[in-house]
Amino acid sequence: MNFFQAAYVLLSYSIGIAISYFSGWLKGSLGERKKALPPPHLPPRQWIWIQAVSLGELLLVEPLVKKILEKKVHIHITTSTNAGFNLLKTLLSTTLKDDHISGGFFPLDLVPSLKFWMKAQPKSVILMETELWPNLIRLCKKNQIPIGIVNGRLTRKSLRWIKRLTMSSLAQLDFVIARDHESDVLFRGLGAPVVHFGGNLKAACIHPDPLTYPWHDLSRLWNSCPIWVIGNTLDGEEALLLNLWKQRKKIQPNLKCILAPRQPKRFDKVEVLLRSENHAYTRASHWKRNTQILLNDILLLDTVGDLSTLYQLGELAFIGGGWMGRGGHNPLESLRYGVQTIIGSHYENFIDLVPPLLSTGYLAAVSAEQLYDYAYNFQSPVGKELDPSLRTVLSDFEKALDRTWEPLQRYV
Question: What integer pLDDT is reported at residue 206 of this predicted model?
Answer without folding.
Answer: 72
